[in-house]
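Entry 14. Ran structure prediction on the chain below.
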Amino acid sequence: MNTNDTNNNPMPQTEEEWKKVLTPEQYAVLREKGTEAPFSGKLKPAEDGVFKCAACGNPLFKDDAKFDSGTGWPSFDEALPGAVKNIEDNSHGMHRTETVCARCGSHLGHLFNDGPTKTGMRYCMNSVCLS
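Output, structure tokens:
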């Protein structure tokens, strides 16, 4: 069984277990691929300079990779090596790249190639997915 690093308890294995450890909003976004409303998130400064997956505690982004994209969602220009997986997403009549946590598979947001920094990438994440 995997370990949930946020509290050293076993990582949930079923959706019923996830519902018990996540808030309803977190569950809707992380496990059901929802999206929080723009400008609604309350992202706190990164603890130890690293933003982590709110579901499993996996380190995802360094705080120095964060930038203000003006979109209403936290944006990062690069993820930590091996922290996320990018998956082709053709839902809702759009062609996008979904970003999920490499450890627990939870939905985090989407990746776009329109970032203003040297990487040219914009990881557009839901703040409810980050701790």
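The first strand starts at residue 3 and ends at 4. Will compare against last week's run tomorrow.
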